[in-house]
């Protein structure tokens, strides 16, 4: 049992945030045993020693509900839109993940990058190669991270080096589920990449796997790009909409995460809400690829769950600060103002709920797993000045969103264990 003394950010039962300027978080066997005002918690645990992190602010670790592990090296690759970007950059690079040694090295780098940016839980796409998923799970297990991931299923309309066989892809997915799902803090997401790359048989098989293995997730993409939507309409002429393709094949369900959800109509949004599925909102990716603007007002009216996501490598940064800022700007273009607390919620506790992990991660309260970060607003002169002059919690949070980056994440604790501080990679040339 050990403690951490610092300021504290956490969510209250009404999902608003509170800040306690002098707090103590007590961790026991990977979970939070108590958290609150220092004097009160210290009196309840007089035997516990504590790390003196005063000057920092403890906050729940960020949760990224949609990110591609094999796309680390295609961030910032210019293209005219989603489909050319996939063809010219993504698929050629993902072919390299058939090599277990390459996949392993990239998994280490990818997870280090998440942690450097304060992300302690994520929902992750591997490539279509079973070796990439093996490498990812092994690296995540070594760090005791709570991660959900899966190998892509894609048996058509894709280059041969990344295309899998219909039945072999499903068999590999089942093997990976049996090997990794529920092992330590890991979960498996059955991952039909997107409808154009998957046959009806493969998507039905994916739904059957989800039925057969309770507690697994499903993740895929929907309604991201207008050219993509037109392609889906040609491939599935009997479907009412892109989302309806998945619904007819049994993939629209609880624990399904649909990335993007930009070009949905009212019927789609109502069905998404009724199914219990969730949306991954990816603002930096949608802006970078010119895909469109997520409709925050319509999402609120429909009432479906959603969380924020980096969508690296279509997304342009691992940083939750960049993602929250982009979400704020996109919402403003749609006439909606997302408060700083609401933005933070959608990248922590709200994201956990969208993933079906409520009560496990996303908050700093007794009973939650002890995944949290230490923030320091003094890491740059401008951030220190702006945050130091904040007159409310919302102003402080928004200063962090607008001016913060990975330097502001000065420590992270995963399953109760402080992680080594990761310095930015050295730059040469």
Short recap of the structure:
This protein is of the alpha/beta class. It has helices at residues 38-44, 82-94, 100-116, 130-142, 166-180, 200-212, 226-235, 242-248, 266-275, 283-288, 296-302, 320-333, 340-346, 349-355, 381-388, 393-403, and strands spanning 2-11, 17-28, 31-37, 50-60, 62-68, 119-125, 146-150, 152-153, 186-192, 217-222, 256-260, 278-281, 305-308, 372-375, 409-414, 417-418. Strand 8, helix 5 and strand 9 (186-192) form a beta-alpha-beta unit.
Q: What does it look like?
A:
This protein is of the alpha/beta class and 429 residues long. Helix content is 38%, strand content 23%. The protein contains 16 helices and 16 strands. The strands form 2 sheets. Strands 5, 6, 7, 8, 9, 10, 11, 12 and 13 form a 9-stranded parallel beta sheet that branches. A 7-stranded mixed beta sheet has the order 3-2-1-4-14-15-16. Helix 4 (130-142) links the parallel strand 6 (119-125) and strand 7. The protein is globular. The protein starts with a strand and ends in an 11-residue tail after the last strand.
Keywords:
429 residues, 9-stranded parallel beta sheet, disordered C terminus, 16 strands
């Amino acid at each position: 049992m050990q403690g951490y003394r610092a300021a504290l950010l956490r969510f209250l039962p009404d999902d608003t945030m509170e800040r306690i300027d002098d707090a103590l978080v007590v961790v026991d066997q990977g979970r939070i045993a108590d958290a609150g005002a220092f004097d009160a918690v210290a009196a309840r645990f007089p035997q516990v020693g504590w790390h003196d992190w005063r000057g920092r602010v403890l906050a729940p670790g960020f949760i990224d509900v949609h990110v591609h592990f094999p796309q680390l090296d295609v961030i910032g690759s210019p293209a005219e839109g989603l489909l050319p970007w996939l063809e010219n950059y993504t698929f050629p690079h993902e072919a390299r993940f058939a090599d277990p040694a390459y996949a392993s090295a990239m998994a280490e780098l990818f997870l280090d990058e998440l942690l450097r940016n304060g992300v302690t839980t994520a929902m992750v796409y591997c490539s279509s190669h079973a070796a990439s998923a093996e490498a990812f799970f092994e690296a995540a297990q070594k760090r005791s991270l709570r991660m959900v991931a899966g190998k892509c299923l894609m048996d058509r309309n894709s280059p041969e080096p990344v295309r899998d066989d219909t039945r072999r892809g499903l068999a590999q997915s089942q093997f990976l589920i049996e090997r990794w799902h529920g092992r330590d803090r890991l979960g498996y997401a059955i991952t039909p990449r997107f409808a154009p790359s998957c046959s009806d048989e493969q998507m039905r098989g994916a739904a059957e796997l989800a039925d057969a293995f309770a507690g697994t997730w499903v993740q895929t993409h929907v309604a991201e790009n207008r050219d993509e939507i037109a392609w889906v309409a040609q491939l599935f002429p009997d479907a009412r909409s892109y989302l309806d393709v998945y619904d007819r094949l049994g993939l629209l369900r609880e624990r399904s995460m649909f990335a993007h959800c930009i070009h949905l109509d009212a019927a789609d949004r109502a069905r998404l809400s009724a199914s219990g599925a969730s949306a991954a909102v990816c603002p930096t990716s949608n802006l970078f690829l010119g895909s469109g603007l997520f409709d925050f007002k319509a999402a609120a009216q429909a009432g479906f769950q959603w969380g924020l996501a980096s969508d690296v490598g279509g997304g342009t940064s691992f940083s939750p600060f960049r993602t929250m800022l982009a979400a704020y700007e996109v919402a403003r273009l749609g006439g909606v103002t997302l408060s700083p607390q609401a933005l933070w919620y959608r990248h922590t506790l709200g994201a956990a709920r969208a993933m079906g992990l409520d009560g496990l991660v996303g908050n700093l309260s007794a009973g939650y797993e002890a995944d949290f970060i230490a923030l320091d607003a003094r890491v740059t002169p401008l951030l220190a000045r702006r945050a130091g002059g904040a007159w409310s919690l919302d102003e402080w949070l928004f200063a962090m969103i607008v001016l913060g980056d990975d330097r502001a994440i000065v420590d992270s604790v995963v399953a109760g264990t402080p992680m080594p501080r990761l310095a930015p990679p050295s730059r040469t040339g």
